[in-house]
Amino acid sequence: YQLRAGTMTNRLIIVNVCVFLVIVLIKKSFLLFNIDPLISDDWIHQLLDLNSSLSAFIRAPWGLVTSIFTHEQFGHLLFNMLFLYFSGRFFEQYFSRKKLWLTYLIGGICGGLLELLANNLFPAMQGTNVVILGASGSIMAIFTALAFYQPNLQVSLFGIFPIRIYFLALFFLFKDLINIGTDDQIAHFAHLGGAFIGIIIVLYWSKKRNNFF
After folding, report:
1. What is residue 106's DSSP assignment?
2. Which of 105, 99, 112 is nearest to 202 (CA)?
3. pLDDT at residue number 158
4. What percent helix, strand, coil does the chain show, rounded to 5?
5. Inter-residue contact 188 to 176 (CB < 8 Å)
6. What DSSP string runs through 156-202?
7. pTM of the predicted model as reported, rounded to 2 decimal places
8. Is the pLDDT at 178 greater than 60, yes or no?
9. Which residue, 139, 138, 207, is CA-closest to 168?
10. In Å, how far from its chain's centre is CA 208?
11. Cα 189 from chain centre
């Protein structure tokens, strides 16, 4: 019912959860038949993730799209889906479902491209053959677009402390900036790329008053 008539936020969450469950089932199936789990991991990475290696990207360019729906760790999925639910729910109060979908997709793709570019221009800083996956870049696009469009919107931090949303956006952007180059397994350039696209999209909509999307 949610896929047919629910909000775009709920639809995106369902798709992400379903992809995660399929990955879990594939891994369990490999274990059931006593197949080396490394084989299933390698297969999943090649099929769904975005690899920062140019040669790997050329062989599997669809990773720009599939990676933004892919999570392999439950904690990663849980945090991203909570963040998506929070930001998407507010986003849809001001914009259409289609605009949420476009922001998610374009923000995620552009974030992946920026991460890909950064990893090849600054390999010493970023490392080599970095695997990029998760909806974080897409969600940052949605969240930053919302914060840029409604900077004085008040939200409850931890359900207790009222805070303006642009303070949270600045915090996340600052956190990504200062952690660039650290070995924390987080695609900071993808986050920043998504955030930048979120701002550009809102500026475009506000300036053009374009109803095409």
Report:
1. H
2. 99
3. 66
4. 70, 5, 25
5. yes
6. EETTTEEEEHHHHHHHHHHHHHHTTTSSSS--HHHHHHHHHHHHHHH
7. 0.88
8. yes
9. 139
10. 26
11. 11
